[in-house]
């Protein structure tokens, strides 16, 4: 008797998933089996890139910043990430909370005290006075966690959000190349880009979460909750946290990820205010203010600086600035995809302003409060004790709290926040990885979410136990070089698409279109001063509009063009549609729309009489989501003329080759 195995339902793309898993498992097993050999080999490659090709990172990040600032103030800033009538999916606070939690995560807790203290105590700056060393420590921390970091995330997120939500392409890195590769993004080129994104995302999350587990166990040991930071306890912590992450990811962005991100941001704000109040408050406010001015004064020097004239500081430059740019770039596929996912309905200007300014400002406040508090305590109270711990970032945050009141509460709160950051980073990472592996399938079986979570936990623990995390981190930083080139190509694609977008939506009717005549002005006045209810608008659609469309359909037919009329209910609407095999369909429709009437209109005597609180009107709409308008004053013939205006515009557009992205063969499929 043959045994029939149940068929496992999956949405995974073989062309993306299989090569990615082979590469991920191969690199992780190599790093776990031969950690020192792998680390030395990858470090050699990384060092070569940082020393000889660091200018690529400097120029790439500089271009990202300049381009985004230009877009924010340009005529393209009003373009929506979605159709012209799309609305944001999430409240502003939830949106900013999610992008912030995904973008910074555990690193904000890990480096908030450690980085300023390491700059402050670095031997390369021994020639400076203590005050200048403190100022420089704050300046470089601002530089590494400020506008430049978020410009990297913003550049990737904006490109993906634009092509996914406005062009209705899959939410995938391959979509950012559509203007350059056209339909090739659906083939091997697209698969190769997504394989790169999936591997880069997996490596980045694995290493960050691995270091996060180390910091959590260090904190629990400091609080005497666990006797030692052993691998056994790390297994338990990873099992609990990844289980929470999987549960959150299964719940979806609207529930688990959004709620945890909101809780996370609220928690860090409370912790921030508590440290500000109990630390050297006046000093912290003053140092933040001066540090902000110092940052803006040195912005361009920092942006273009390569330390080529200061050979003594070159190793520091490679190990900090270049490493940071590589780290942010390597994380940008994951963060960019997630930010793009949650940003539908925002304008380009709103997106850039929020992504560049709000997280940057919060990072500056956070780093000022924690970093400057630690340096002030080290200089005035601890007598250099914190400086000696600068190379032990796992324990430094908790040792810092020992010099503040309520130190135990602060330590517990920090561990809780790190845990939430861990979960929010992991759940959004799992969500993004599954999206890449499935080419952004709308619904995936839950076992796939569990699979990515288990794989993430297993390999992170394997590398933690074998000491291979450093090797994987080097691998992640190496992948940043080719990806920086990819993001630069995103700019080329985006420039090309935005120029066409603007031209497409601004194209006016031809000069031959005929405006209203004054022949029926009395009838028009009656229509203007009378307000319609829903039933009267339905009658207008069923009579005037239907008759106009029927005559148009017959005339199109006599000219060899097939047109169909579609009718819908709730709300009442009717449209005339001309199907095409090669180009996008032409659609002109009229629907019953309602709008609230202002209170003063109900009580004003010298205005048209109206008794209902809601006024209805017939509004036109089009197949390309341009904004329609009220057509209640149109006669049958004028309505026919209006449809022909738009059809003439449509014909003029499709004959121009540059508009191919809007009218390609896949446009109809994407619109459905």
Automatic annotation (TrEMBL):
It is a multi-pass membrane protein. The keyword Flavoprotein does not apply. PROSITE patterns: BCCT (PS01303). It comes from the Bacteria. Its main location: membrane. It is found in: Cell membrane. The chain crosses the membrane at residues 55-73, 93-113, 142-164, 192-211, 231-253, 265-286, 317-339, 351-370, 409-437, 449-469, 475-499. Keywords: Cell membrane, Membrane, Transmembrane, Transmembrane helix, Transport. The keyword Transmembrane applies. Signal peptide: none annotated. Belongs to the BCCT transporter (TC 2.A.15) family. This is BCCT family transporter. It comes from Sphingobacterium faecale.
